[in-house]
Design brief:
10 helices; elongated; single chain
Length: about 200
């Protein structure tokens, strides 16, 4: 499943992509403010800049909108990792830099990550599995980078564990912010996480 498999009555794919971008942006603002369940499709349409009838030309249900938003957030994370990870020329220092940049990027999309944790459960089983698979792809990208740098010293299972640990440590800054951000700045948090990474390096 991908956003292309969400039914649309509009045949112009360029227009579909443009309109869905508006829907995603409008819905994200509302979901951050009100949550998924307290947001109506009528509000999403208004926030996106068109009528409720027009909205239903591009999606079928409010759940479709949540799915598009979840996919958009994962795309952002993968794009950021792609921009900072160079598997071909990986060194331990470039690995550290990629992890550091990932952690700082999580700070810039805190509401989006929090929303993923809170609202993914609202998707049906098929869509929820797809979203969770996207999360695993992010782990896989980190795992690939770690493998290039550490395969001589760590087992595949250890690398898999470390990749998951790094990804979740970025999320923790977001979903535990009510506690952690009272005690640490983002710079302090990143440096402490890097000390944990250095134990493996």
């Amino acid at each position: 499943m991908s956003e292309d498999q969400i039914r649309s009555s509009v045949k112009d794919q360029e227009l579909v992509m443009r309109r869905r971008k508006q829907i995603i942006e409008g819905a994200m603002r509302l979901f951050k403010e009100k949550g998924f369940h307290r947001t109506t499709t009528r509000e999403i349409a208004k926030e996106s800049g068109f009528s409720i009838g027009t909205l239903y030309e591009y999606i079928r249900t409010k759940e479709d909108v949540l799915f598009l938003v979840c996919e958009f957030v994962h795309d952002q994370v993968r794009d950021q990792l792609t921009a900072t990870i160079s598997v071909e020329n990986s060194t331990e220092e470039s690995l550290r830099q990629a992890i550091r940049q990932y952690l700082y990027f999580m700070d810039t999309i805190q509401p989006e990550i929090l929303m993923l944790y809170q609202e993914t459960k609202s998707l049906n089983k098929e869509k929820r599995k797809f979203v969770l698979d996207q999360e695993q792809k992010v782990v896989g990208m980190m795992e690939e980078l770690l493998t290039v740098c550490l395969k001589e010293r760590l087992s595949a299972k250890e690398i898999y564990f470390l990749a998951n640990n790094i990804v979740v440590s970025g999320h923790m800054w977001c979903f535990r912010r009510w506690l952690i951000q009272k005690e640490f700045t983002i710079d302090e948090y990143v440096e402490l996480q890097m000390k944990q990474v250095d134990v493996w390096l």
